[in-house]
Amino acid sequence: MELTVQEVEKLFSSPCEFVAGAQNLSQVPDLNGLPEVAFVGRSNVGKSSIINSLVNRKSLVRVSSNPGCTRQMNFFNLNNKLILVDLPGYGFAKISKKESHEWNNTITRYLKGRREMQKVFVLVDSRHGLKDTDRQIFRFLDDSAMSYHLVLTKSDKTNSNDLQKVQDQIKSEMSKFTALYPEMLVTSVHDSASIMELRNEIAKASFRYCK
After folding, report:
1. Half-sphere exposure of 24 (CA within 13 A, CB side)
2. Which of 55, 71, 118, 162 has its CA 20 to 30 A from that of 6?
3. How many domains does the chain have?
4. pLDDT at residue 89 above 70?
5. In angstroms, how far is CA 171 from the centroid of its own chain?
């Protein structure tokens, strides 16, 4: 069932508060069984800016120009209706292999079999397209039977021809991934219509769970 524009706007104009950060599973807070959606992507893909835009806040999530800044899972409660989970960025070469392995292991264990998790939004920089690290995340989510949606970010940072090439390249690969939603979203934090589209997809996941 489609949500009305008013329902989506009401959800995302509601109070959104930081709950906790967790560097390992033992630190994951009690989230009262609320539905969850997660955001994951390569370091510096724009996750923090996207989440801030979704909830109309400038600094709910700290935005950094330093890749790899998010080194824990961060949980945000949207009006006791939905939990937004900001997962650590991946694919930043300057972090140690040990750190990278620990982060990946924590994310894997968190997502696998988590009943409350309704959808994972995998963010990809529209200037660069898919990288091998993105494909690895796709394969993991496929193996976990976890529904996920590809979101291109920073579409304002590239020209229309290059953006179309990236979209075509991604479309040529999408059928390879079984749990990937067949339509990608193209977003920019400076394009309110694209942010509204993303809100709608998130709200639909929450609404289905709450029903």
Report:
1. 4
2. 118
3. 1
4. yes
5. 19
